[in-house]
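Deliverable D5.2: sample structural annotation.
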Amino acid sequence: MSDSQSIEQLLKKPGAAGASSTIPSVGDKFDTKMKDIRLKEKEQEAEKQAQASGIPYVNLKGFPVSPEALVLIPREQANALKTLCFLFTGTDFRLAAISPTDKSVTEMLYQMEERLQAKGGVYLISEESFRSAEKLYDALPKMRKIVKGVKVTDEELARYQQDLKTYADMQRVLEKASVTDIMTIIMAASLAFNTSDVHIEAEEKKVAVRFRIDGVLQEVATMHAELWKKIIARVKLISGLKINITDRPQDGRFTIFLKTGDTDVRVSTIPTAWGESVVMRILKPSAINVEFAGLGFRPLVEAKLRKEIDKPHGMIITTGPTGSGKTTTLYAILRKLNTADEKIVTLEDPIEYKLEGINQSQIESSKNYTFASGLRSILRQDPDIVMVGEIRDLETAEVAINAALTGHLMLSTLHTNDAAGALPRFISMGVKPFLLSPALNAIIGQRLVRKIHEACKEEFVLAPDVLATVTKIMAKLSPASGETPLPPEQWKFSRGKGCEVCNMSGYKGRLGIYEVLMMDDAIRGSLSESINEYQVRELAHTQGMVTMTQDGFLKALDGITTVEEVLRVAGEGI
């Protein structure tokens, strides 16, 4: 059945034409009855007029006009033409007009078809029907909040959390849902499953829904391919994106409204072979509400890092790929430093989370407000502490280093694989070693690993080859690190057996594994334009740095994560 046929059948259902029941007033039932008769006669006249002219008819009194449809025509224009939009599915829309053959109405129909890239149609209505539907504009301020977001009530969330315990449950619920409810269900499920990113992808024979949970992407449901146009239209509508643009990327945003607090969702779409790919990043405030002490640094490393953070100037750099928790680490440091006597300013692209008491500024490349130019402006704000979202080029690096050398504590990120790679990266940008040496305080390399689900935790014996790998890497642990693990023959490891709560993964939640390179005299003295990662790593070993892999294995020995997870995320050589 086509979308158009579905719409026509919907309008022909009993009650869909909006047959209304009126409650007679206590004072004069006769007048009310006569009024009803006159209105009914007028509706019958309008219906006969529609039949005579071959134009479809609808009575909008009581018809469930959606806000998505109503907002497509501004109220002033609707009143001028006595025309409004009463139905919109993403692929089809329907107008209702007192004079459907008027040239202005016909022209508007064509313009809307072009703008929405959807098929339109016009219905004849009576004046009373128009007046009844026109009053719905009064409620649009409330409706618009829903148009730009997904309304998930706390009651719905609690119910979905009961109904959606596994991915199989989600598939079952989605198969029975309308397009509007599909988005509500997906968002409610993403919150219930503690998802960071939702992927909705058009494929040849299906629409795939995938959740990134604890850093791992998992397919949670599929839908029929013919639903794609309606789903993408709904996503774009609530995200403020242009529905008719399908051949280039778009970025938008919407909000999930809950009594417990609103959650922003950042939306990205790109064209693909079978339609578009949609990725929705769920920006939960709780995701970055991690105190510095809860980041997962080992006690000796945390004590050293606290000393560097408490210095009044210098640079603290975090490194790692996208999604390794760098922003969470920097925000935790900022919260620790955020006191009434400190002026803190950040420069971000984009600002994803709002931090109270901190001045956050977003770069605008189109207006020449870049990291470099923005940083210069920030330094005129008399800050004590500055955070720059990322150092990408020499210009930004030089301004940041000069700030660190002139009495500012500078926090930033750098895209390198590990802490040792940051120094050669700075030098390859063109930074002079003699400036870099006194500016840097510490470099943090990090990854995120999944934690063993405590409810289904069990002891586990490693395979001989894996145990040999762990033994080899732990044997390289620097004596200067201060870490004294048990001998290999006393090692015990755990894993998650898998249960319904963790969807049989054996994991729930994540924590960081780290390596922290302190800028001591040996490293500062060896800095030159020819230094490489291997040399830095050797100096760091002498200093006592615990590598990310070693830190992960120590946490596996503590029963927090698994060796398999550490090797998956960090590998053997990092």
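Annotation notes: The CA atoms of residues 465 and 471 lie 10 Å apart. The chain is about 40% helix and 25% strand.
The annotation will be released with the project's public dataset once the embargo ends.
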